[in-house]
Amino acid sequence: VAANYTLVLGDAGKLIQVNTASASTVTVPPASSVAYTAGAAIAIVQTGAGQVTIAAGSGVTINSAGSALKISARYGAAQLYELSDNNWVCFGNLTT
């Protein structure tokens, strides 16, 4: 992707490559919009120079160590894992 992006059901089990020169946001939509099954995993890698922020859609909670939800550097990556509806954990090369 080359701009802000909202995840879709087909992204489960895939790697989303974000390649943009400017900062961008990848948004996790609420279960009311996209019905992922518990255990769904999505990887995100930042291949461009623009920093990628992972954001929660309305009613979604994303937990991460130190509340870090920005990929820390180019070629860094993050993994999203759905624990239950609207409850995700994010880990990887993250910063605040």
End-to-end Cα distance:
22 Å
Beta fraction: 35-45%
In the predicted model, the low-confidence regions spanning at least 5 consecutive residues are none
Question: What's the gyration radius in Å?
Answer: 12 Å
Measured as a percent range, the helix fraction is under 10%
Mean pLDDT: 98
In what order do the strands lie side by side in the largest sheet?
A: 2-4-8-9-6
User: Count of helices?
Assistant: 0
What is the element string, with H for helices and E for strands?
EEEEEEEEEE
Structural class: mainly beta
Describe the main β-sheet briefly.
Answer: 5 strands, mixed
| Global morphology | globular
Can you count the beta strands?
Answer: 10
- Give the oligomeric state: single chain
Topology:
Layout: E1 5-6, E2 15-18, E3 24-28, E4 41-46, E5 52-56, E6 61-63, E7 70-71, E8 77-84, E9 87-92, E10 94-95
Parallel strand pairs: 1-3, 2-4, 3-5, 6-9
Antiparallel strand pairs: 4-8, 7-10, 8-9
Explain what this protein looks like in three dimensions:
This protein has 96 residues and is an all-beta fold. It has strands at 5-6, 15-18, 24-28, 41-46, 52-56, 61-63, 70-71, 77-84, 87-92, 94-95. Strand 8 and strand 9 (87-92) form a beta hairpin. It is globular, with a radius of gyration of 12 Å. It starts with a strand and ends with a strand.
